[in-house]
Amino acid sequence: MSSLSYAAPTSVDDAVKLLAGASGLAKVLSGGTDLLVQLRSGRLKPDLIVDTKKIPGIIGIREENGGFVIGAATPGAVVEAHPGLNAAWPGLVEALDLIGSTQVQGRCSLAGNLCNASPAADSVPALYAAAATAVVVGSKGRREVPVEQSPTGPGRTSLAKDEFILEFRLPPRPAHSGDAYLRFIPRTEMDIAVVGCGISVTLDGKGIITAARVSLGAVSPTVILVPAAADALIGHTLDADTLAKLDAAAQAAAKPISDKRGTIEYRTKIAGVLARRTATIAYDRASGKTNGKAH
Amino acid sequence: MPTVVLASGSAGQQFTGGQTEFEVEATNFRRLVLELERRFPGLGKQIEESMAIAIDGEIFQDAYAAELKPNSEIYLIPKIGGG
Amino acid sequence: MNYVDSSLKVVGTRPIRPDGVDKVTGRAVFAADTHAAGMLWGKMLRSPHSHAKIVSIDTSKAEALKGVFAVVTAADFPDIPSEEAFVGEGPMNFRDLALNCMARTKVLYEGHALAAVAASTQAIADEALALIDVKYEILPHVIDVEAAMAPDAPILHDDMFTAGVSPKPTKPSNIAKVVTFKKGDAEAAFKDADVIVEGVYTTQPVHQAYIEPHACMATYAPDGQVSIHSSSQGHFMVRAYTAKLLGINMSNIRVNPAEIGGGFGGKTLVYLEPIAVALSKKAGRTVKMQMTREDVFKASGPTSGAWMSVRIGAKKDGTIVAAKQVLKFQAGAFAGSPIGPGCMCGFAMYDLPNVDVVGYDVVSNRPKVAAYRAPGAPITSFAVESLMDELALNLGMDPLTLREKNAAKNGTKTHYGPTHVNIGYTAVLDAVKAHPHWKAPLKEGQGRGLATGFWFNIGGESTAQVHVNEDGSVTAATGSPDIGGSRASIGMMVAEVLGVPATTVRTIVADTASIGFTHLTGGSRVTFATGMAATQAAEKVVEDLKRRAAQTWDIPVEAVEWKDGAAYPAGSNAGAFEPLDLAALALKAGRTGGPILAEVSVNAQGAGAGFGAHICDVSVDKETGHVKIERYTAIQDVGKAIHPSYVEGQIQGGAAQGIGWALNEEYIYNAKGQMENAGFLDYRVPVASDVPMIEAVLVEVPNPRHPFGARGVGEVPIVPPMAAIANAIRSATGLRMPDLPMSPPKVRAAFDAAG
Amino acid sequence: MAKTYVSATINGESAEFLCETQQTLLDVLRDVIGLTGSKEGCASGDCGACSVIMDGRLVCSCLVLGVEAEGTTITTIEGIAQGDKLHPVQQKFLEHAALQCGFCTPGLIVATKALLDENPNPTETEARYWLAGNLCRCTGYDKIIRAVMDAAAELRGETVG
Question: CA-to-CA distance for C583 and C471, rounded, in angstroms?
C-alpha cells in the first residue's frame, strides 16, 4: 500500500529541497488542523508531509520598522496573547481567534488558513483588509507578495510545488486606524463562516475616512477585496448614508453559491449586514472609542 | 362481563372487520387474548406482537396475569417503547 | 412496601455516583477502549447510492490482500424471514433488522452496509474495502416524506402494502401503515366552535448524536462460544438480536456491557455486533469494529422528520370542543416510525371531547429511524403546542390559562382510550404560575414562550441482586446499562431499605450470563422498573437478616425489628440484646444459613405518565435571523427524585437537545440523496456558548406503583422545547415559524416575507 | 510500512513509541500506548473528546500527528490526578454531577484544567466559549459550567457555598 513519509526540516533550504525533490504529492504541515482532517477522511493522499514548525523564525512575532512580522506557523493562541498585535490589529487577532475551538487555536496558523484556500477562511479577509504581505520561499529564492495574490480558487494557491510561506508582514499603522472582522455563523462557535467580512480604516483628525480596505469571505470562489465598498467609505464619516452605500456595495460584490451553509439570497443579504457592522467596529476603534472582543 | 375496546389506532381492526368493542368473559389479560384469538383468528397474535393493554388507565405490556374486573375499562393500544 | 410517606435518609440526597471516579480519571472502559491479543480491525463497506440494486459483489481482490483475514457479505448470514418482534424500543421486523445490518439485494440509503472486512490494521482494512468491486444498478430515490407518498414515487419495497386500510391494497406503496384515533365526533363539533385555528408544521430528522460512536469487540471461539463487548442501551437486546440474526443459541453468546457514551434511544438496535461476530468466526480472531462519525450520521437511526396539519376549535371562553391532526412520519428505509405515540401524545395533555387523528408511517431512502427520547412526542407536540399558542393569541387569552382551562386531570379520558390516573399535569401548570420566570417582566426586544409535553414512560422486565458481602458491605447488581447515573439511584434505593449510607452499597452492571433478563435502558424505565426490583431484593435481604438475628438471639422473628442498618430486639419483652448490624450478621452468615443475598425479577407495570412545561425567553437578530436563548426554565413532574442532581441533569440535557432540534439540527441531502452534513461541523448540536443555564424545577407527584413514588424522567424534557422556542420567537417578533429547524436563514426569510 | 521512532514525555514519564506517519497522536495514545482515557468522538477536531495538553497548549490529539509528538511534553486525562488524589476540577465534576454518560468528561476536564491554568478567574461566558469545542450531549452544560466555576473558585482559594 502507498506509504506516507514525514520530514521535519530545520532550515528553509532543507524544506525547499524536500518539496522540490518530492515524488508525488507533498504537503506542507504547519498547524495541521485542516490537513489532518483531509488525511483522515481520505480526501487527500499525499506521499510526503513536510513539517515546517522546526524552521527558525517560522513561529513567533517580531516588530520590524514600524510593522509586525508574524511567523507563518505561529499558532493562533500565540497571536492572541500578543499585546502589540491586539493594540494595532485587533480585527486580525479576532479573525484568527474565531477559527475553530480553543483546541484548534493551539495549532492553527495564518499560513494554513491562507493556503488551505477556503473561501470561508476566517483570518484571510482580515489579512486582506490589513494589506498584509506573505514572504514566500522556494528554489528561486524569496518573494514578498500581497496575500490576496495567494489563493486562486477553492483549495488552490499561486504557490509553486517547492514554495511555502515563511512569514507574514503587516504594514506600519498610521494614527487613527482601526480594523475589525465579523463573520456570521448559525451557532456561537465551531462553525464555518456563512459570510465573513474584514475591514480596515484610517481616519483624519475630523473623523473622515481617508483610507479603507474591505474584504468579504464565503461569497465567491476565493476571499475577495471589494474596492467599491472601500470607495463608499473613503471621504466620509460613518453616517447612515455611508453605511447604506457600503451595504449596497458589499451585496453587489457578493457572488455566493447555495450550499449546506447558506443560500445565495441569504449570503448576499448578510454580506451587507456584516459590512455595516464590521465598519462600525473598525471606525470606533480608529476613533479610539472601543476595543476588545467583538463576540 | 368487561367491555374491551380496540383502540382505533391499533392495527387489530383488520381481523375484526372493523368492530372495535367486545364483551369478553375473561378475568385476566391472557384469557382475554385467547378469547379474542378464538373469535377473530390472527387478532391474538397481533396483540401479542404489537399491542399493550390499558386497564383502568394503567398500561400493561406483556402481563398475562393482569387482572380484569367486571367493570374494568380495558383498551388495547399500540405497544409503547421509548428512547 | 411503600416508602412514599416515610422519612428518608438516603433517597433524595446527592451522593457522588459509584462510577464517578472512573469517569473523571479516564479509567472507565467504553466500547472502543478494549484490546485483545491478535485483534483484527473490522470495517464496513457502505453504499454511496441512496437507492440501487446490488447486481454483483466481487470480494476476491480484497480477500487476496495481505493482512486481510475475512470478508463477509449478506451471503454469509441466514436469510431471516419476516417476523415481528418487540425486543428493542419499538415494533421491529427481524428481516428488516437483518437487511439493515447487511443489504442483500438492494441498498436503500446512502451508508447502507453491504460488505465488511477484518484486517490486521485499520489502514489495510480501508485498502481492502476499496478493492471490493460492487456493481450497482442505480434506482430513482425519494427523500421527502410527501414525495414518498405520491402515487408515482419510487417504491422501496415491492412487498409493502399499506396496513390499516380496507380493502387491503393491491398495489405496493411506501406507506407502511395508516393509524387513526377517534374520540367523539370532531367534524360535527367544529361546527359548534366560536374560533377555529389551523396550521401545517414540518420537522426534520434529527440524530441522537451521542458523542460515543457505535463500537464493539467480538470473539467467536472454536467451540462456538461467542463473547461480545459493546456499548448499547441493553446488552440483553444485543444478545437477542445477534443470536437471531446469526442463528446462534443465546446460551452461547455472552455480552459484556461496556460503559455507554450516550444513547438517547439510538443504541437500542444492533448495527455492528452480528457483523463483528461473523467476521470473527471466519477469521478465527477477535474483531473490533467502530463507526466513524460519518457512519453514525448516515447509517444509524435518527428520529423521524414529519409533515403535520393540526386544527383546533374552541369556544370564546377557551374551552376546546374539537381537534384534528394529520401526521406523516418518515420511517427511513424500513417501516417503523414512532407514528403510534406521535398520534397519541400530541393531545394527551388536554381534556378534549372530540378528537380525530390520522397518522402515516412512510418509508423513504434515508437511514432507518431509531428511538429518540419520547419517540414521536416532540414532533407531534411542536405542532400542537405551536397551534395552542396561536389559539391563545386568537382568543386574547394567556397561554397558561388556556392550558389550565383544558388541562388533563385524573379521570380525564384520553383520545386514544385509557383514562389518565395519578398524573401531575395540573401540578406542573401550578408550578409554572408560581415560578419567578413566568412572572418576570420581559426584557426589551425579547419574547417568552410556553409549551408543555407528555410521555407515557414504561416499566417492563428487570432483574436485580443484592449481596451482603462477608464484611457487611453490600453489592447491588442489575442488568441495566448506566447511561446517566442509574448505578447511583439504584444503590441509593437499596441503601435506604437496608438503612445504611449510600457509600456502603456498590452497584454494578452485570453481563448477560451473570444476571436475569433485563429489558434495555430506555423508555425512562430503569429507576422505575429496575429500581423496583432492587428495592424488593433489598427488602428480602432485610427479612432474611431479621430471621438470622432472631436465630442468633433465639427469639421469634416477630420480636426483631430492623432499623438504621441493624437488627434490634422489638421492645423490652423481646429481651436485652446488643443490636446486630450488617457486619456482625455477615460474620456469622455461615452459621445462620449461608451467604446473604436476594435476587428479584419483575415485570414492572404502571410506570406513571410524565408531564413537563418549559418557559423560554429569546431575543432575535432581525438582520441575521439568529435566535438567542436568553433564559430557560424546565418544570416537570418526576414523581420522586431519587438523586435530584441526576434528575435535573436529565431535564437540562433533554432541554438542550430540544434547543438544538429547534434551531439548527437537520439532515441536509443533495440531489443524489446523499447526506451533506454528516459531521459535528455542519450537523450543529448546541455547544456550551449556545445555551444559558437551564433551571430544572422538580415537581413531585408520587407514582403509587413505585416504592418511592418515582416516575420516568429522561424523555419528557425533550418534548416541549421546540414549541416553547417557536412560541417565544412569535412573542418576540410576531412571526410564526412552522418549519424546523428555525435556523437563521429561515427566520430572516420570515422577516423579509412579513415586510 | 516504515515506522518513525518517537520519544516524548507523557504524564511526566518518558514514553517511546514507533508510529506510522498517518497515525494521529490520538491513535498512538489509544492503540499504541494504551492510554484510552482520551476518546475519539469525531476524528475531525469538532468534539474535543480527545483533548490533551501538549507543551502547555490545549489541542485535539486527533489533529496532531503522532510523529509531531517528538520531544514534546503531553498531559492526558490519565495525568490530571496526582496519584490517588483527584485534581480539584475532577472533584468538582463529581460533586456537581457534571457528567452523565462520562464519555466527553475526560476531554472536558483536560480543557477545564487548561482554562484555569491560563485564566484562574473566568467569567461564565469565558468558560462557555473556552469549552465550546468540547461537545456534551447529555448535560446541557449547566452542571459542567457550575463545576468549572466552583473549581476555579477553589483553586483561587475562595470557598463558595
Answer: 5
Which ranges of C588-717 would DSSP assign to H, the alpha helix?
644-663
Taking domain A177-286, whether its CATH number is 3.30.390.50 is answered by yes
**Rounded Cα–Cα distance for residues A74 and A52 (Å):** 11
Cβ of residue A240 closer than 8 Å to a chain C Cβ = no
Confidence of residue C374 (pLDDT cuts 50, 70, 90): very high
Contact A186 C663 (CB under 8 A): yes
* pLDDT surpasses 80 at C86: no
Query: Rounded CA gap, C650 and C524, in Å?
Result: 10
Residues of B in contact with C177 (CB under 8 A): 11
Between CA C732 and CA C742, with CA C737 as vertex, the angle to 5 degrees is 95
State the pLDDT at residue C575: 87
Question: Lowest-confidence range among A129-133, B62-66, C336-340, C605-609?
Answer: B62-66
The answer to whether B71 contacts chain C (CB < 8 Å) is no
At residue A1, the pLDDT reads 45
Q: Which CATH number fits domain B3-78: 3.30.70.100, 3.40.30.10, 2.60.40.10, 3.10.20.30?
A: 3.10.20.30
Could you tell me if C259 lies within 8 Å of chain D, comparing CB atoms? yes
* Position C632 pLDDT exceeds 50: yes
d(CA C588, CA D26): 52
CATH architecture of A61-170: 2-Layer Sandwich (3.30)
D149 and D111 belong to one structural domain: yes
Instruction: Give pLDDT < 50 ranges for chain A.
Output: 1, 292-295
Residue C166: pLDDT above 90?
no
Inter-chain CB proximity B9 and C419 less than 8 Å: no
pLDDT at C90: 61
C298 φ/ψ angles, rounded to the nearest 5 degrees: -85, -25
- Displacement of CA C680 from its chain's centroid (Å): 21
Interface check C672 vs D, CB under 8 A: no
For the domain that residue D39 is a member of, what is the CATH number? 3.10.20.30
Tell me which DSSP letter residue A144 carries: E
Q: Which CATH architecture has domain C34-139+212-261+267-299?
A: Alpha-Beta Complex (3.90)
Closest residue of chain C to D131, computed from CA coordinates: C688
Residues D58 and D13 placed together within one structural domain of the fold = yes
Cα–Cα dist C345/C376, whole Å:
8
- Give me the half-sphere count of Cα atoms (radius 13 Å) on the Cβ side of residue C540: 16
Chains D and C in direct contact, meaning 3 or more beta-carbon pairs closer than 8 angstroms? yes
Distance from CA of B81 to the nearest CA of C (A): 4
Nearest CA in chain A to C747: A266
Are C748 and A184 a contacting pair at CB < 8 A?
Answer: no
What is the per-residue pLDDT for A295? 45
- According to CATH, where is 3.90.1170.50 located in chain C? 34-139+212-261+267-299
pLDDT given for residue A294 in this prediction: 45
- Is residue A51 within 8 angstroms of chain C, CB to CB? no
The DSSP call for residue C12 is T
Quick check: C244 pLDDT over 50? yes
Does the pLDDT at position B6 exceed 70? Answer: yes
Q: What is the mean pLDDT of chain C?
A: 96
D52 to chain A, closest Cα gap in Å: 9
> What pLDDT is recorded for position D160?
56
Residue B8: the pLDDT is: 65
With a cut of 60, say whether residue C89 has pLDDT above it.
Answer: no
CATH of C306-457+608-754, one of 2.30.30.140, 3.30.365.10, 3.40.47.10, 2.40.240.10: 3.30.365.10
C690 vs A260: CB contact, 8 Å cut-off?
Answer: no
Which of D33, D53, D79 is where one domain is finished? D79
> Does residue C294 surpass a pLDDT of 50?
yes
* β pairing state of B3-6 and B21-23: antiparallel
State the Cα–Cα distance between residues D28 and D72, nearest whole angstrom.
Answer: 14
Least confident of A186-200, A222-236, C90-104, D34-48: C90-104
- Given an 8 Å threshold on Cβ–Cβ distance, is C664 in contact with A187? yes
In chain C, residues with a C-beta closer than 8 Å to the C-beta of A194 are: 744
> How close A222 comes to chain D (CA, Å)?
23
